Amino acid sequence: MSHSVLVVDDSAMSRKLIIRGFPADWASEVRQASNGREALAALAEALPDIMLLDLTMPEMDGYEVLAKCQERALDVCTIVLSADVQPRAEARVMGLGAAAFLKKPFDRSALESVLVRIEKR
Fold first, then answer.
1. Which residues pair with 31 in a beta bridge?
2. Angstrom distance (rounded) from CA 53 to CA 62
3. Tell me, what's the pLDDT at 3?
4. pTM value?
5. What is the full per-residue pLDDT of the chain (121 aa) written as tens digits?
6. Torsion angle of alpha carbons 72, 30, 4, 117, nearest 10°?
7. What is the span of the domain harbouring residue 35?
8. In what order do the strands lie in the sheet with 50-54?
9. Can you tell me the distance from the alpha carbon of 23 to that of 77, in angstroms, rounded to the nearest whole number?
10. Which pLDDT score, from 0 to 100, does residue 44 have?
11. How far apart are alpha carbons 34 and 45 in whole angstroms?
């Protein structure tokens, strides 16, 4: 099954690694954004099936993106990827509507597991 995906991270290398972590033939369309403002602009253009979102970024962080998505009633399944592994960070993003939280550096099998779980919804 193919999905449209938006990968949001200020690091081009991280975006590349995330995209390489997708199962073969999983994503049909992948767009990228390097900060929260770009992410919101991309979401306004076309809502993807899934957004993979970093928390710590310049201009607008992942928390702000999640809050804006809630305010605007944007129904996008969001997986947060972050090096901030404090339990309160995970609780906060889940409270803001994230579907899952993965720690960076992420394990490819963990990403695949979350994607399979989301696909079964």
1. 6
2. 6
3. 85
4. 0.92
5. 578 999 999 999 999 999 988 877 776 789 999 999 999 999 999 999 999 999 999 889 999 999 999 999 999 999 999 988 788 999 999 999 999 999 988 888 888 888 888 877 6
6. -100
7. 3-119
8. 27-33, 3-8, 50-54, 77-82, 100-103
9. 17
10. 95
11. 16
- CATH classification at residue 110: 3.40.50.2300
The angle subtended at Cα 14 by Cα 10 and Cα 19, nearest 5°, is 115
Residue 102: φ, ψ to 5°:
-120, 140
- Rounded Cα–Cα distance for residues 33 and 109 (Å): 24
| In contact, 68 and 95? CB cutoff 8 Å | no
Rounded CA gap, 120 and 68, in Å? Answer: 26
The residues, any chain, with a CB within 8 Å of residue 96's CB and separated by 6 or more, are: 63, 66, 67, 69, 70
Separation of alpha carbons 49 and 104, rounded Å: 22
Q: How many domains does the chain have?
A: 1
